Amino acid sequence: MKSGMNKKALARICADEIEKATNIVLLSGAGMSTSAGIPDFRGPNGIYRRQLGINPEKIFDIDYFHENPRFFYDFHREFLKTLKTIKPTYAHKFFATLEKNGKLKGVITQNIDSLHQMAGNKNVLEIHGGIWKSYCIRCKKTWNYEESIALTFSQDVPHCDQCGGVIKPDIVFFGEMVKYLEESQRLVKESDLLFVVGSSLVVTPAALLPGLAKGKIVIVNKGEINKLYLPRSGDILHVEEEIDEFFKSVNKFLGYKLP
Predict the structure, then answer these.
(1) Which of 42, 66, 80, 191 is most buried, most CB within 10 Å of its CB?
(2) Residues 6 or more apart from 77 whose CB is under 8 A from it?
(3) Would you write out the chain's pLDDT as a tens digit for each of its 259 residues?
(4) What residues does 196 pair with on adjacent strands?
(5) Which structural domain, as residue segments, surrounds residue 17?
């Protein structure tokens, strides 16, 4: 794994790899959205751990949701309020521009904030689900985003008007199966350049995906990463820089016009 070069040299290498590549794929994690104002759920300075002193995994634990859904909804309402104020970051716009220019073939994201779609990406696989739909855990009736928002803010715990079951956003909780796994695996296998941005590669099965890459891997993450699942013989570049600032440096070599 290569690292340790200065930012300009790293940016030059990334720009060269982007110019050579024809099938780029992005795997994004929570770190890509923190500069947009989305709380970091797992980091030591994450809003839930820092301000409330609780283990954030408990919020998204499916067994605990069944036991006490109000606990989740107290946090979910605050998260939805945050989403109303945020905009895609420079990095989100950069990768949307790569897709527009035919370089990026798909985004695999662990995030549920839909910032990739807001930036303009079309082929986005939200493997941990999203907030744009909710469903009854009993009868499976569904509600769209506007309906879900109204229910969330009008009831402590939204319940189905058809059967009385608890309504749950279409977010993948711990203990549930991720979405689009086969499609994600295929994207990574077919890529000639894989970016891993803002992910510490701890949570599986997302952390397993880079192990399928046959081309170069560029990891951009401020902080430690889990190297356990990375290919041992792969061509991997690890960039420990601020994400938005780094991709601004990369684009100085590429010259793309971002929206």
Answers:
(1) 191
(2) 152, 153
(3) 555 578 899 999 999 999 999 999 999 999 999 889 876 655 545 555 554 555 667 888 999 999 999 989 988 898 888 888 889 999 999 999 999 999 999 999 999 999 999 999 999 999 999 988 999 999 999 999 999 999 999 999 999 999 999 999 999 998 899 999 999 999 999 999 999 999 999 989 999 999 999 999 999 998 889 998 898 877 899 999 999 999 999 999 999 999 8
(4) 27, 219
(5) 1-37+88-128+179-259
Identify whether residues 139 and 123 lie together within a single domain. no
Cα separation, 158 vs 183, in Å, equals 32
Same domain, 31 and 136: no
Per the structure, the count of domains in the chain is: 2
User: Strand locations in the chain, DSSP E?
Assistant: 24-28, 104-109, 124-126, 129-136, 142-144, 167-171, 193-197, 216-220, 236-239
Same domain, 61 and 97: no
Q: Please tell me whether residues 24 and 92 are part of one structural domain.
A: yes
Residue 128 is among the residues annotated as catalytic for this protein:
yes
CA distance 246 to 202: 23
Tokens 């907030």 map to which residue?
A: 131
If asked whether residues 164 and 189 sit together in one domain, one would say: no
Single out the catalytic residue among 116, 128, 159, 238.
128
Indicate the DSSP class of residue 45: T
Name the residue with tokens 């100085």.
Answer: 252
